[in-house]
Structures are given as structure tokens and as C-alpha cells.
Amino acid sequence: MSPSPTPTTPRPPLRVALAGIGVVGGGVVRLLEANRELIARRAGRPIEIVALSARDRHKDRGVDLSAYRWEDDMGALVAADDIDVVVEMVGGADGPALTLARQALGAGKALVTANKAMIAHHGIDLARLAEEKDTPLKYEAAVAGGIPVIKAIREGASANEIARVYGILNGTCNYILTLMEREGASFADALAAAQAEGYAEADPTFDVDGVDAAHKLSILAALCFGTRLDIGAVAATGIRDLIAADIREAEALGHRVRLIGMAERDPAKGGALYQHVQPCLVPADHPLAYVPGALNAVVAEGNFVGRLFFEGAGAGAGPTASAIVADIIDIARDEYGPAFAMPVSALDEAPVADPGARVGKHYVRLIVEDRIGVLAEIATAMRDAGVSIESFIQRGDEAGGGVLIALVTHEGPARAIHAALAALAASDHVVGEPMHMPILAL
Amino acid sequence: MSPSPTPTTPRPPLRVALAGIGVVGGGVVRLLEANRELIARRAGRPIEIVALSARDRHKDRGVDLSAYRWEDDMGALVAADDIDVVVEMVGGADGPALTLARQALGAGKALVTANKAMIAHHGIDLARLAEEKDTPLKYEAAVAGGIPVIKAIREGASANEIARVYGILNGTCNYILTLMEREGASFADALAAAQAEGYAEADPTFDVDGVDAAHKLSILAALCFGTRLDIGAVAATGIRDLIAADIREAEALGHRVRLIGMAERDPAKGGALYQHVQPCLVPADHPLAYVPGALNAVVAEGNFVGRLFFEGAGAGAGPTASAIVADIIDIARDEYGPAFAMPVSALDEAPVADPGARVGKHYVRLIVEDRIGVLAEIATAMRDAGVSIESFIQRGDEAGGGVLIALVTHEGPARAIHAALAALAASDHVVGEPMHMPILAL
């Protein structure tokens, strides 16, 4: 009855090939070597690396790879009949990573990947291929690094209808925001510090513009809601437009600023799916407000379990390797099933929710010229758009000489805020772009 | 290759019987009814309740059970050949619950249980029986209620050697401690409030003396360390001896008081296993310090993943039902394996660590008479026992008329603290029992 080994029937080793040996690949090798015996006990069989492949064999990876077979051509991993599992760590949504993934699954091999971009763009196609070939496709490392959140949602929360899923899905942004919070730093200075510390890349676009978090959010949404992955439907707003004063005013209002990816399905609107990555004000009594530095955290709210909160390292060689090897152990144990918790044929096509219709409180910040009538202009624009103001702060002498206005609205649709700010952005007295952020509802 | 259903082969329903229909049992019925279709999509087959059994058929459980077959005798569930899974919610370490569990597994049925006492006392025997019969034994609901922490550790963190596992495992105690913290209440008043709110039982012994948390800790330890469950080796100190001043002084020292169950294995001492439930001072920058009310939270520290933190509802009908049904879905999917992550034969017998040898900082609080020489007596007792003091607070005019002394030690073995306090407890000038708590090391 059980697909797992009984103690009396020793099972052959699971034979693994690693493709793309960078920081993460080196971590996987180190992990499988360091925890070798423990993993064999837990998996019910040894897990053996039988081959490696990457572009440059001679690059120094800080780990001795000379004991392993090397293939210059990744295709050789797919062709070899002594390989059960291909671990794809090449990266990129398309190109060699996707070719390898398709070939490996097509050949009936198990595929483990850390590639969030590839899963976000091609996850459904790959899952269908895995089903056709009756072979596992696993991607725990693609979302929130070392936190086993794919498993926690796919299996741990499987009894629940999930109302919404959200979290801090990008450690680089959280590191930058934490630095702005602690040191009153500007975005530019905090980014530079994050780059110097190795937490941000030289080209930080993918992280700070929310693209990376959008990939992860789309995967979580598909799993939570049983919907087809739709990366094109995820709106992403990054953190570049935040100024130090936003962090400060948020704190004065009892909140912290975090880049939040959130997905929510609205049963009242035909199951329309809202997916947005954007900076938000998180109330100080919500656990996301305390997630520091480069950590990640995910919240899932189920109709029976209530709020589940998971926190841990979202990136780095060790945590990512931990997630990859957990997937390999599941395969070794024969404990796996459809990639998105149900067969692709059972997934819904969710209509895209109208983000303008989303109701909530908002934080708005403007820098205005210090002259008579500006306040009236703001109040009028808000009133005309139907925005009701709950609290209002005005501070003179901001850097740049303007006056800072920070306000919190009552609950209302996002489109009213957009309309008010569009009107104000056209005003001669408003300096630069107004900033607005939703306040996370508890 | 995959044990899971392919979309082309519909599978028969999984047939479930529920034994012991109280608050949790009612929750399981409601959940399986409310989320019926979603669960069938996720599980790859319908999950059907085919029979119920409890002592009193006519008790009002707030849910209509008339549609289900009723068995007055739980043994009938085991005998019936139209039942695949028995869910044990009878409670109690021994007696009818254990009889049912043994009979169900013995008959080759799958067993799902929420019974932490039974697993803590008989988990190894039951796991062995499940292996012999090649049938699943699952107990997600036994630890930390709705948080899928058994799964997160058994599978999510499976690639890691776990250095230590610890957390807030009893919601009643955390509710009481949170109340003492927020309102400056005494233990007795906070307990009475918890009882009035339904968070504590009329006889609160199991909760406030740490017995319930000890059961859960022993289960986590076995899973994390691959050791045989040994409930007899778990030391438990409850929260009855805490006074409002302890919470206040802890806060003044930058800490919060939480009842922490911690297990740690010391590779330097033959893998000796330390398992202790006790109130601890948690630093304000540790996520456990922010776990409010009746929530539970668990931390696992792995050698590659680093610190994982899981928080959620630790009790209640909905969260417990969520965990029970997640186990049932795993069984429906054929995604399960050995109960303690590896066969019983692969589990170690861990030697019991000497708790006195455990090194750390400690908080000590004494109430003393307000007279000359008392301070010298304390300082001398500490010095003689080899305890070095890091900080010291003396406050006059405590309730009861004594003087309160609160101090934090430098790092040292617990046995030195015990020796110093034993000497001081014998003093005529010390009023009542001295209190000491370890400070959680980050």
C-alpha cells in the first residue's frame, strides 16, 4: 500500500545530475557531501551525484568537483541512462534552462529546479509534460529560498480554501528597506550599501522593480488558488520611488514599509484573481513588520487554519541548496505528486481582477511648494475623486525645500486614489511624483 | 514511476471514519463538508466520511451528523472493510485511544491522530506497527495545531542536520504570559481570565505545568534528530512561579518571557539530547518575542537552511481539523512514508544530556527582606557557586513588603545557578522561592 521503502527492502541509490554550477550548485554539492549519511537515513536510500555540467569547467567554485563526472554538454545529462534526477540551476526563463527542462522531463527524468523565472513563464507547460511522462517536477527553491513554503501550501495547508497569500518575497528589497528604516538612508544610499554587501546585484532591476517577487507570487497564487499560472497578470511596482521620509512617516503612523507580493481571489467576482507586488504599509502588530534584513516571509490565510506565517532565508547557497535537496529527498522517498497540487487539467483559468476596484486604506505622500492655497488644492482633488482623509501630516523644510504632506485615507477603491493623484501630479505646485501605498489590511 | 494519479485514471474515494467527536471532530466534519470539492481536486479523489463513533451519540455538537453511519463501538470502525482511514480524536495517552490506534494499524488501516500524549508515550511502538503493516501513521495535528510543522521538519528541512528545535508549543501559557505582559496581571488573575475566555481548562495542570508542551517537544526532537522518542527524558518547568515583576524586569532588560520547549543535540557529547520545557527570556530581536496570545510558533535551525520560523494557531477546532485533513489528503495522494521520517530501526537511542552542564546566561529573581547584609549574602552565594553577574537591579517596596532583586548572569553552567539558589533558598532573609530562567541564546 505505501509507496515508501519498508526496512527490509534496501533501495538503490537515487542518481542525480547537476546542471549549472554557480554559488547554488556549489552549495548543493557541499550539502550532499556534508549530510550524506543523514540524508540516506531520511530518504531511505543514498543520494549520489553522478554528473555535473556547466559552461566553464575550470572556474574556481570553492568546492572540489574533481571526483564527479563532467559533461560539457548539458544534453548529455538527459541522454545518460544512469541519471534519475536532473537539477536545473542554469537560470533564465528561456534558453538553455528551458531546453534542458523540457528534454529532461521528455526523457522521463525527474526535474528539480530553483528557476522562478522559468516556472513563472513555463510552469504549466512543464507540469503538463511531467504528467504526460509520469515523472516529478519540483521547484521548492524557486519561492522564498530555504523556506519550505511550496510544501507548506501544497500539502500543509491543502485542506483549506486560501483567502489570500502574501509576503516578503525579495530579500534584496527587504534589506534595502530595513536599512532605510534603521539609518534613515535614502534609497540610493541603501542600494549602494546592499550592493557593497553582496545583497544586491550590479544591475538591481529584477529585484528593486519587483520582477523577481512577481515571479514568485505568480507561483504561490497558482498553488493556493488552483489557477493556471499567469505571470502576465501580475502587476509590479518596485521600491525606487520611496524616500526616507516615507519610511519615517509610516513609522509615525505605526507602520513599516515592506515590498509585499499579494494574491487574492474574489469569490464575489467570479473568482477574479488580484496579483500585485508593491510597497505597502504593514501595521506594527503584523508579523511581517518584524521581518528584518534579507529574510523572506510568507503568509497564507486559510478558511479553517487561519493565518499561517513562515519566515527564513530567501536566498543564498545554503538555504537554496536546502530546498533543492528537500525536493530530491521527496523524489527518493517517492513522496510527490502533481507540480501544482492538482493535474493541469483541474486548474482554473482565473479572470484578472480590476486593481482599481480594490478597496482599502492608502498612504499618500506629496512634496509641494510652500505657498498659500496648496493645501486647499490637495483637499479639493481628494474630495473630487471621492477620497476621504483619515489623518494628515504636514512638515515643512524637507530636503529640496518643499513641504511634505503625508496622509492616510479612509477605506476606498484604489482608482479614487489614482484619480486624485493624477489630478495633483498635473499641478504646478506639486514637486515630483506623488507616492502612494496601500495599507495592509489585517 | 509516480505513485500519484495521472489525470486519465480516476481513483476511488478515500473512506474515512472519525472516532471521538468533540470540538475537533466537529471541525473535521465541517471542513470536509465545506471544502469538499476543492479537497477532491487537490487529493486527486473524493474524501468521504463513512462512519462516526463517540461515547454519546446524542450530544449537541453544533453540526448535523445524522447523514453519517454511527457506531457506538469504536471497534466496529476497525472491523469494517469499507473504511480506509481511522481518525483518532479520543484523547489520552492510553486507554481507548491507544487500543483503537493499535487495532486500526494492526488491521492495516491508515491512522491519523491529533493525540500528542499518545504519540509521545507510544509513538515508536505505533510507528513500528505501521511499518509492519505497511500503512500510514500520521500526526500533524499533535504538534502546534494548524501549523504544518511536522511536515516542514520531516520533509521541508529534510536535507539539514538540525542543531536545535524550539518554540512556543502551548497556546494557553502564551495567552497567560501575553496577558501578564500587557496588563501587569498576576499569574492567578491571568489564568482566571484565560479560563473565562476558554483558553484554559478548569484544571489547567497539563498546560501551565508544561506537560502538554513536553509531549510536543519530544515528538519534534525525535523527528529533528532521528532519535527514539523519549518523553521520560523531557524536563518540564511550568509558569506558575512567575510573578508580574518577572515580566516587567525581563522587559526592562530587553526581553520577553515565553514558555519555550527546546531540544538540542550535542555532537561533542556523543549526541546527548537535551529536552526542556521552561519559561525563558527571549531577546526582543527574536521572532518568538512577538508571538502573541494563544498562537504557537516553532523554530528549527538547520546547518544549511539557517533559522526557519513557523507561526500559527496552535489549537482550536478549525486549525486542528486543517492539520488532520492535510494528513488525510497526503494519504489520499499516496504521499507519505515512515512516521518519524525514517524507519524505526534507523532511529538512534540518544543519551540524555546533563541539564546542569548546559551553558548560558540566566535571569535570577529573589524577594528578600529589606535589611543590612542581604546584598552581601546574595553576592557571596553567587561568587561561591562560580556565578558571575552581568547586571543587577534592586527595587524596594514590592508587594508583600520585600525588596526585589533581579539579575542577569554572564554565561555559565546551569548547575552553578542551581547551587547558588539552593544556598540562598536556605537563607532566613530570602522570602519564598527564588526564580531563575535561562536567556534564549540567538
TrEMBL record, chains A, B:
PANTHER family tied to this protein: HOMOSERINE DEHYDROGENASE
InterPro entries in the record: ACT-like_dom_sf, ACT_dom, Asp/hSer_DH_NAD-bd, HDH, HDH_cat, HDH_CS, NAD(P)-bd_dom_sf
Binding site for NADP(+): 19-26
CDD domains reported for this sequence: ACT_HSDH-Hom
Top EC category: oxidoreductase
EC numbers for this chain: 1.1.1.3
Top-level taxonomic group: Bacteria
Residues reported in the UniProt entry to bind NADPH: 116
Binding site residues for L-homoserine: 201
Keyword tags: Amino-acid biosynthesis, Methionine biosynthesis, NADP, Oxidoreductase, Threonine biosynthesis
One BP annotation, GO: methionine biosynthetic process
Protein name: Homoserine dehydrogenase
This protein's record includes keyword Oxidoreductase: yes
Family stated for the protein in its record: Belongs to the homoserine dehydrogenase family.
Active-site residues, record numbering mapped to chain: 216
UniProt pathway annotation: Amino-acid biosynthesis; L-threonine biosynthesis; L-threonine from L-aspartate: step 3/5; Amino-acid biosynthesis; L-methionine biosynthesis via de novo pathway; L-homoserine from L-aspartate: step 3/3
Segments forming domain ACT: 363-435
GO MF assignments: homoserine dehydrogenase activity; NADP binding
